[in-house]
Every structure is written in structure tokens, then in C-alpha cells.
Amino acid sequence: MQTTANFVQDKVLGGPLETAAVPEYKHREDGSQMKALAWFGSENVEVVEAAVPDITQDQDIILKVTGSTVCGSDLHLYHSEIVTMQKGDVLGHEFMGVIDRIGPNVKNLKVGDRVVVSFQIACGTCSFCKKKLSSFCDRTNNSTLMKTMYGQRDAGFFGYSHFTGGFPGGQAEYVKVPFGDVNCLKIPDSVSDEKALYLSDVLPTSYHAVVDTEVGEGDIVGVWGAGPIGQCSIKWALLKGAKKVVVIDLVQDRIDFAIKESGSDKVVGVNASGGKNVVEEILKLYPDGLDVALDCGTFHEPKTLLHKVQKTLMLETDVPETINECILAVRKRGRVGIIAAYSAYANGVAIGALMEKGVRLQGNGQAPVHLYWEEILHDYIMTGKFDPTFMISHRVPLEDFKELYDKFDKRVGGIQKVFVETRFSNPPSAGCPKTTRAKDIV
To answer: How do the domains of the chain map onto residue ranges?
Structure first.
């Protein structure tokens, strides 16, 4: 049966564009199977038996996955907010593992190497890739729909619908990685899997939000959303010299966690639940406004009845409420960075305030992982300046993915990042959560 997304792509937009990387893969000749998490509809994901991939193109590698996780942006897929999902799509864009097979043109890696994979698929040779702006690669996403909506295409992404190329993801036991030399970062033995895994997305994404919005010495910074991206952004902002950070969230436990993990008196919280006027609360603290606001939240949870109705009726795909709070809460000539994953269109953006206050509204874009991951690994993780394991709240087996998505979506049990292990994983590292079952997260 043809999906709506297929119809739009094939009939309205003229079919997908040719690219240098193909999402399809060959199956292992021996017919071997693996466990993988597949999407079947809104709030309907299942761990299934799927064919193990083999080398399709000469620059491919096949990875045995040793760690993956659920990202907040995966919830947009989980709730069917990305229209180009197809039943049976394998999810997951944050993962790492050990190389199992390599194509004949892979030169810098070998079987047995331990690597983390960037969530975006870069070709390594286009003008953006040459600048390590991997998320903007011109050659790995065949979505005509994205080109029509945005004017250009981002790179292909793993496990994130046919809007980003339709590449099977890493919430599985094996995954095919196109352009393996480009999209894999070799990890030293001294760095544990728990510290390495989040180089695939969360660490570069949060770092990019802070660097791209030019957080600097003495800034007062607001961070909307105290999920893992927000929690890491707080730490990066303090490392870059921020004077104060205000964390805004609907969940008090997340605010308390951010304050505790900062280890200083430089972080304060604003609880946005109960219809509280966030802008008023911030301006009570800092009457002149924030220097910088970072939108690290999500578009799929409208706050007001007006936007709940508009979103339900598909009159908008995204809600502008957090962006408007950011614009109103920053000082004149302040800066607003958007790292939250918005999709298409929102009604009622406070464009008058944006213009009259001279606010710099910065779409950070999908973070170019390749620009940052070596710096973060060598200058922050290996030196001990940034320990990513602070955000790992649980560790569960791959078989529990279905229940984990439900718990993660409902923010049960203080969930932040969850390390999802496979049969190929190393034992938990010292100081990191031991393996439990998703059903026990309460």
C-alpha cells in the first residue's frame, strides 16, 4: 500500500532525488537475523526480527551496535508528527559499536575498531563536508519533499524517516553506515562506551547551540527545556563563561537536577507549569532581560488552547510559544538560538518584538557533528572537563525499547538519557547505571 508520504514524494514532487548514498541494503547471504526497533504508527513501536545488513556500496561499513539510546527528537516520530514515516522503518540515530565488516574503499578503519557514528550521514566531499559542516551535506538525502519545503536539503540522517533519506537506524543489533571513513570516529580504549556514545548527537548538538549562539563571558543565559540537550547546554554555557543560567521547564525534578548538577550557585530555575507567565518570572530576576535564550525544548507540546486546536486541525505543524517567550525575555539586541527540532510552520510568531527589539534570532540548524566531535572528545571528555555520564539515568536491554519509549515519552522515574545495551555490549562502567528492565522504571 502506498503511504501519504510516498504519494506526495512520487506524484506531487516528482519522486526522490538521486544521491551518493543509498538507504537500501543487501541482506546477509546466510539469512541471519537481528533484533531491531521498528515503527508501525503513532505510539506503536515494536522490537522485531530483521535481516542483518551487508555491504551495499564500497565505502560502507557494517557495525555491531554496542550502545544506543532514545533522543527527545525521536518522540516526534513516535507521535507520527513527521509525515514521511513508513511502517517497518528502523529507528535510532544515536549509536556506537564495533566494526564487523568494511567495504573495499574504506581505508582508515578496520574490522574490530570501536567507533561512534554521527547521526547525520555526510559524503565527505561536497563543499559543506569539506568545512566539516556535516549536517548540511548536499549529497546524502534524496528527499524531494525537504527540498521543496526548505529550498535545500540537509544531510541524510539515520533512523529519522524518509524526510531525511530513509536510512535504517541504530536502535538495532547491526547497522549499515555509508561513507564509513567519514561518519565514524574511532574511540580510544581509555574512553568508556557510556562517555563515547553521546558524541553521536547530544554532546555536539548542545555544544553547537551554545557556540553558534555565541554564549560568552558574563552572559546571562536562559535555557528552555531541561532534557538532555538543555542539561548539557547549561554545562557548556558555564564552561564558556556564562555569569548565570536560568533553566525553564514544566517538570520541577528536571529543574532541580540541573541546579544540583551545575555544582554552583549560577543556575536558577523557573517552573513553567500551571500556565505561569515565564517572561514575567524571568524579568523579575533580570529586569533588563537575558543576554541569550536557547530553545532546547520541543514543538510537539502546545501550552495554550489556541495552539492545541490549531495543531490538532493541522493549521500549523509547530507551535511558536517557546520562541515567543525567548524573544520577549531577552534584552534589546539579545540573541535567541533555536536548537529544538522544529519541522515546518508555526502561527503567531512575535515578529514585531523581534524587529523592534533588534533581537538576533538564530536557527542553529542540525548540529554539524563532525565540526565538534574530536574537540569534545579530546579537550573535554578525555581531560575530565565534561563527563557525559551525569545524564545517564538508566540502562536497559534492547528488548525493552517498546516500553522504554512509553516511559521516556511520559518522563517517568527521572528519565534523562538511557544507555540501551545489546548482546555485543561491554559490561556497565564504574559509576554508571547497572542494567535494569524498563518495566522497573517508575
So the answer is: 4-201+368-440, 212-363
Please count the CA atoms within 13 angstroms of the CA of 123 that sit on its side-chain side: 16
Nearest C-alpha neighbor of 6 from the set 150, 151, 141, 162? 162
- Strands 156-157 and 120-121, how do they pair? antiparallel
Q: Which fold has domain 4-201+368-440?
A: Quinone Oxidoreductase; Chain A, domain 1 (3.90.180)
Beta-carbon contacts of residue 107 (< 8 Å; ≥ 6 apart): 181
- In order along the chain (442 residues), what is the average pLDDT of each group of 10 residues? 43 70 93 97 97 97 98 91 90 98 98 98 97 97 90 95 95 98 98 98 98 98 96 98 96 94 93 93 98 86 89 89 97 97 92 98 96 98 97 97 96 93 97 97 94
User: CATH for 212-363, among 3.40.50.10490, 3.40.1790.10, 3.40.1010.20, 3.40.50.720?
Assistant: 3.40.50.720
Within 10 angstroms of residue 414's Cβ, the number of other Cβ atoms is: 14
